[in-house]
Design a protein that fits this description.
Largest sheet: 6 strands, antiparallel
Shape: globular
CATH architecture of the largest domain: 2-Layer Sandwich
Radius of gyration: 24 Å
Number of helices: 9
Helix content: 10-25%
Number of domains: 2
CATH class of the largest domain: Alpha Beta
CATH superfamily of the largest domain: PmbA/TldD superfamily
Order of helices and strands: HEEEHHEEEHEHHEEEHEHEEEHEEE
Length: 449
């Protein structure tokens, strides 16, 4: 009880600090201002080969303030929350604003778009984890991986992280709100060797609540299983074939779509999806939507980084692009209303077509299952896509052998249009929630075999 009251008192103090900052900005002549303040504390422990490598206690804080003198903007930040430092930070932001160029699209959000209701999203689950208990957990996790099979030859270690933070945001329009949240994770990475073949892989679990984490034993075993199945990987000859993006990498493919409909890409005219609103981008069965109010989810929030209320909304419905991803600034540049996405999307969800990954393999019959991607060969302006990949070759719906040192390529417009199915094996460990994605055909390049 004492700890909770202490956190509550800290939240109250931070709210007062943000109010004082906004008052100080007004005293210094700013016509409008906004400020965000965050504090975080946590514990990170890493163990390798049965011994502790690091024990780190984190305690971080930071503040950013943005002021407006009409249409001129200035921003400054600090990690020092002493009264004099806060005053100097506001002075720095005001000094920058006075010398900046006017921008007709600059300014705070429209008042009527600010959040006014703050439902409990179940984001705060402190984990009373001592350093000793964290050490035991990491050693148990790594041991489960190392003891899984004799071919597990080495380890990059296991680690546990627990963080609890408080964030307060306010602006001179009268919006001010603070919340507490937690994030906990456990991970393990090991190496395996069979003859001259050596491979590495990992697994991790992450959640707002430690009670929803996978067990240390399960994380270690999954890391070992994933590593062992990659041994004796081959390359492939260059070919055209169907491809499945496993759930853990499929979110990246959806991320490229979001990058192309983000306001900054659109008003700079640097997106292959420019002026595609209302047009068919995906097959008719694709539904992509935001769910910002999911209880306990990693991307849940009541408002974006400007204080604009977030709502559940469709981005793609029946394969048709329904909406862009806009902040107040980018919306003004485009002559559109903000979508409440300053800072990004919130629990972006891609609806499944009903099959698990094994069923997708059967549907694909012969092709490539991708489990890892490397490199950043994506051109959002043209949609051209090329990335290094590793995974498994599939024949007659069954995995035949692991593959590596290959490249998958295509154009994102074609890839999106040629999605065949989305699996129900949804990966919930991030802000984008999607299952495996089957694409009708891609170019796969590798060395001749």
């Amino acid at each position: 009880m004492t700890r909770e009251m202490s956190a509550s008192d800290k939240l109250s103090r931070l709210l007062e600090t943000v109010k004082e900052l906004l008052d100080e900005a007004r005293r210094q002549g700013a016509s409008a201002a906004e400020a965000g303040l965050s504090t975080e504390r946590g514990l990170s422990v890493t163990a390798r080969l049965g011994d502790v490598e690091t024990i780190e206690h984190h305690k971080d804080q930071g503040l950013g303030v943005t002021v407006f003198f009409g249409k001129r903007k200035g921003t400054a930040s600090t990690t020092d929350l002493a009264p004099q430092a806060l005053k100097q930070t506001v002075e720095a932001a005001c000094r920058i604003a006075r010398y900046s160029t006017e921008d007709e699209c600059a300014g705070l959000p429209d008042t009527e778009r600010l959040a006014s209701e703050f439902v409990d999203l179940d984001l705060n689950h402190p984990w009373d984890l001592s350093a000793d208990a964290a050490v035991d957990l990491t050693i148990e996790c790594e041991a489960a991986a190392r003891n899984f099979h004799s071919e597990i030859s080495n380890s990059e270690g296991a680690s546990v992280d627990t963080h609890r933070g408080i964030r307060v945001f306010g602006n001179s329009l009268g919006f001010i709100h603070g919340l507490q949240s937690t994030r906990h994770s456990l991970s393990c990475s090991v190496l395996a060797q069979r003859g001259r073949s050596m491979q590495r892989d990992y697994w991790y679990t992450v959640s707002r609540s430690n009670e929803q984490l996978e067990s240390a034993n399960d994380v270690g075993k999954k890391a070992a299983e994933r590593t062992l199945r990659r041994l004796e990987a081959r390359t492939l000859s260059t070919r055209q074939c169907p491809v499945i993006y496993s759930a853990e990498v499929a979110s990246g493919l959806i991320g490229h779509f979001i990058a192309a409909i983000r306001g900054g890409s659109l008003y700079r005219k640097s997106s292959f999806l420019l002026d595609k609103l209302g047009q068919q981008i995906f097959p008719p069965f694709i539904h992509i939507h935001e769910q910002p109010h999911l209880k306990g989810a990693l991307g849940s929030t009541c408002y974006d980084s400007e204080g604009v209320a977030c709502e559940a909304r469709d981005i793609v419905c029946d394969g048709v692009l329904q909406s862009y991803v806009l902040s107040s600034y980018s919306a003004r540049k485009l002559g559109l209303p903000t979508t409440g996405n300053a800072g990004g999307v919130h629990n972006l969800s891609v609806d499944s077509t009903g099959s698990d990954q094994q069923a997708l393999l059967k549907e694909m019959d012969t092709g490539l299952l991708i489990t890892e991607l490397m490199g950043q060969g994506i051109n959002i302006v043209t949609g051209d896509y090329s990335r290094g990949a590793a995974g498994f070759w599939v024949e007659k719906g069954e995995i035949q052998y692991p593959v590596e040192e290959i490249t998958v390529a295509g154009n994102l417009s074609n890839l999106f249009a040629n999605i065949v199915a989305v699996g129900n094996d949804v990966d919930l460990r991030g802000n984008t929630r999607t299952g495996s994605i089957l694409i009708q055909e891609m170019t796969v390049a590798g060395g001749e075999i």
